[in-house]
Amino acid sequence: MTGVDPALHTELCELLGIRYPIIQTGMGWVSDPRLTAATSAAGGLGILSGALLNTTELRAAIQQIKQSTDASFGVNLRSDHAQAAEMAEILINEGVRVASFALAPKPELIARFKEAGVIVIPSIGARRHAEKVAAQGVDAVIAQGAEGGGHTGQVPTGLLIPQVVDAVSIPVIAAGGFFDGRGLVAALSYGAQGIAMGTRFLLTQESPVADSVKRRYLAAAVTDTVVTKQIDGVPQRVLRAGPVAELERANPVTRLARAASNAVAFRRLSGDSWPSLIREGLAMKRSNELSWSQVVMAANAPMLYRAGLVEAREDVGVTASGQVVGLIDDLPTCAELLERIMRQANEVIERFHVGDR
């Protein structure tokens, strides 16, 4: 769109080479090449979910995005992945602009990306985490409040963002509860340089999520999500649907047996060898201080999400969702969504200017 207020072209836009300070987060089974390319082409920053891909699939997905758009985009990786270093080299060799992480990347991985000129943006849920990664040299952080979907913390967005902004000197991207231009302006007023959205981009036309699942999201209220540890051992916000209640009620032995079965299924799907899976589990256990039962549950999570998002299996699958789902009622294209958000943000700022005159 034309006539964007200068306040909406932030330091983040310059850093990432994007028109609008809006980021589509890397969601497993959701942030595929099509959604990523559509977001970036529309002026935001699309982030490909690379955590569930092997190296061959990752390279192919990146090349597919590059064939669709010349705009900047990012790739989300897992720092504890057995092939994290090899995947990092793929990003570097393919000229990817941004590497994002759900968990703090290892210092040596940050250093390698920095050396190659790749921008590093981890997600954090607490001030101390932001301070730690800022000291390690990352370029920006996505600070997600408790309202956000998937892995989430305890501090609401409205309290977390000003706290993190005051604690670090790098750009802060606000996440958790954003879906429109009013939210973008609110985030900027807290001192953030932009917003990141997951659930809102999941509910677009380019999202690969099954139509029946999208309808389930659109019917949900703000009270229709729940935070549970029974998916992978750490808190995740998901829709209150499918097997979530059953997982909460199940005894530890039953949960572990089901998780182990799904972990084996994921190994077959991913093509990982058993030695590779064991090395990955050891790395996860050390870096995240998890018990072995939590490690097995973490390997189980991708299959639960695949069943819920890709296969539309409401009976056995789970679906991550932010509370903002209750405020979303349509399925625009990514271009329509970004244009709408920027138009709304401009209107909000214009009302402020009118009040000043």
Spell the H/E element sequence: HEHEHEHEHEHEEHEHEHHEEHHHHH
Question: Low-confidence parts, pLDDT < 50 over ≥5 residues?
Answer: 262-267, 277-282
Biggest β-sheet: strands ordered side by side in the sheet: 1-2-3-4-5-6-8-9
Number of helices: 15
| Largest β sheet strand count, sense and barrel closure | 8 strands, parallel, barrel
User: Number of domains in the coordinates?
Assistant: 2
Helix content: 40-55%
CATH homologous superfamily designation of the largest domain:
Aldolase class I
SS-derived structural category: alpha/beta
Shape: globular
Overall mean pLDDT stands at 87
CATH topology of the largest domain: TIM Barrel
Radius of gyration based on Cα positions: 19 Å
- Beta-strand segment tally: 11
User: How far apart are the termini?
Assistant: 26 Å
Strand content: 5-15%
CATH C-level class of the largest domain: Alpha Beta
What is the CATH architecture annotation of the largest domain? Alpha-Beta Barrel
Characterization of this structure:
It is a single chain. It is globular, with a radius of gyration of 19 Å. The protein contains 15 helices and eleven strands. The chain starts with 10 loop residues before the first helix and ends with a helix. The longest helix is centred in the C-terminal third of the chain and has 23 residues, at 334-356. α3 (55-68) runs parallel beside α4 (84-93) and α13 packs across α14. Helix content is 48%, strand content 13%. An eight-stranded parallel barrel has the order 1-2-3-4-5-6-8-9, surrounded by seven helices. Strands 7-11-10 form a three-stranded antiparallel beta sheet, with no helix packed on it. It has two domains: 6-209 and 328-356, TIM Barrel; 221-310, no CATH class. The chain is α/β, with parallel strands linked by helices.
